[in-house]
Specification:
The chain has 13 helices and ten strands. It is of the alpha/beta class. The protein folds into two domains: 156 residues, Rossmann fold, CATH 3.40.50.1970; 200 residues, Dehydroquinate synthase-like - alpha domain (Dehydroquinate synthase-like, alpha domain). The strands form three sheets. A six-stranded parallel beta sheet has the order 2-9-6-5-3-4, sandwiched between helices. Helix 3 packs across helix 4, helix 7 packs antiparallel against helix 8 and helix 7 runs parallel beside helix 11. The relative contact order is 0.13.
Length: 371
């Protein structure tokens, strides 16, 4: 995400279309037909066996053509090069590229489509991050900082078939809620610090619409998040579930891209030093609590209770950190980001590295009292 002081110009960007509801996989040929008769499906390994047969048949029935390729599972430079070369082996360059799966499958799809200056669709099968709506791709580099690849537009369509997403493991929605929970809290801190928005387009400040989307996402999560998780655990598609899907995908995605990030994302970026791997959004949800402590924010108690209710971490034990290694690992975590990640200090006041460490320890004390 970009850093820098915003000037007077404002920026807002978003997908061209957002579609959410049951059975939308059936409509993919109709959506893709707006751009031409040929499509490439880049499919997550988990869904490849089913979707690589089912979806091309839908295109055939519509008088169109769909080619399918299995995503390698890791959005790195090598995989991007492989898929770019694969397209050259096809009988034609597809008019539309459709990424089907989780965040990495959709990210790599954007990058391949952008290479050929074609249209692309994000078809989300899990709701763990804001990736479906974003204009950028995260290119992973093992053992090093990830690379942000900004594209010339957002997805043409974002399609969420909730008949499919409701069958995903509940922890995926927990991660999505954690990622979305940070959006408005970080947007406020970033705006107060006059930082540029996350669009990647120079020195633009957020629009009021971007802030409103972030706030609406936050409000829906606090109102419907617990009920949505109850529905997700039972694989029941309820109105509360549908509301939270929109909040975690469209509203958080548009809200984050058109505002800014702060401590929560900055601290989570260092979680690679911890012994247990956590989904991105799950870690962000924990770091929201740390940010609220650093800000001395009155919302802390409410958000702590919300985290516990939906299944987000509230202490270092929940992160898989052994008690006897807590101080050592938390110091290592803070050292890995403070002074190295600009967003970890993207707030309108100065704080020391020790403030972050004390906030983490305070959160452990608070969580122990609330058991």
């Amino acid at each position: 995400m970009p850093a820098g002081k915003a000037r007077e110009c404002r920026c807002f960007q978003s997908p061209s279309r957002y579609m959410q509801g049951p059975g939308l996989i059936q409509r993919l040929p109709k959506f893709a037909a707006n751009f031409g008769p040929a499509a490439l499906l880049i499919i997550d390994p988990f869904f490849y066996k089913d979707f690589s047969v089912r979806v091309p048949e839908l295109f055939r029935q519509a008088g169109m053509r769909a080619y399918a390729v299995e995503f390698g599972g890791f959005a790195g430079r090598e995989e991007l090069d492989r898929l770019v070369e694969y397209v050259k082996t096809l009988p034609e360059i597809p008019d539309t590229f459709i990424g089907m799966g989780g965040g990495q499958a959709m990210d790599i799809n954007k990058a391949v489509a952008a290479t050929y200056r074609k249209n692309w669709i994000s078809f989300a099968t899990a709701l763990t991050t804001d990736a479906p709506t974003f204009t950028h791709t995260i290119i992973n580099h093992p053992g090093a900082q990830n690379e942000l690849m900004f594209h010339y537009k957002n997805p043409d369509y974002v399609v969420v078939d909730t008949d499919i997403t409701i069958q995903s493991p509940p922890w995926m929605l927990v991660s999505g809620i954690g990622d979305a929970l940070a959006t408005y809290i970080e947007a406020q801190a970033s705006a107060a610090n006059n930082n540029v928005c996350n669009s990647g387009l120079d020195d633009y400040k957020p629009t009021m619409l971007g802030m409103a989307a972030a706030k609406l996402s936050y409000d829906i999560l606090l109102r419907d998040g617990v009920a949505a998780m109850r529905a997700a655990r039972a694989h029941l598609r309820t109105p509360a579930y549908e509301n939270v899907v929109e909040a975690t995908t469209l509203l958080s995605g548009v809200g984050c891209e058109n505002t800014g990030v702060s401590i929560a994302h900055g601290l989570q970026a260092g979680f690679g030093v911890l012994p247990k791997h956590l989904p991105h959004g799950t870690g962000v949800g924990y770091c929201v609590l740390v940010q609220l402590i650093v800000q001395n924010d009155e919302r802390f108690g409410e958000i702590f209770a919300f985290n516990k209710a939906v299944g987000l971490p509230v202490c270092t034990a929940d992160l898989g950190v052994p008690a006897q290694q807590r101080d050592e690992l938390m110091e290592k975590l803070v050292d890995s980001v403070y002074g190295k990640r600009w967003n970890v200090t993207n707030v309108p006041f100065f704080f020391e590295k020790s403030t972050l460490l004390d906030a983490i320890k305070y959160l452990d004390e608070y969580a122990a009292e609330k058991k």
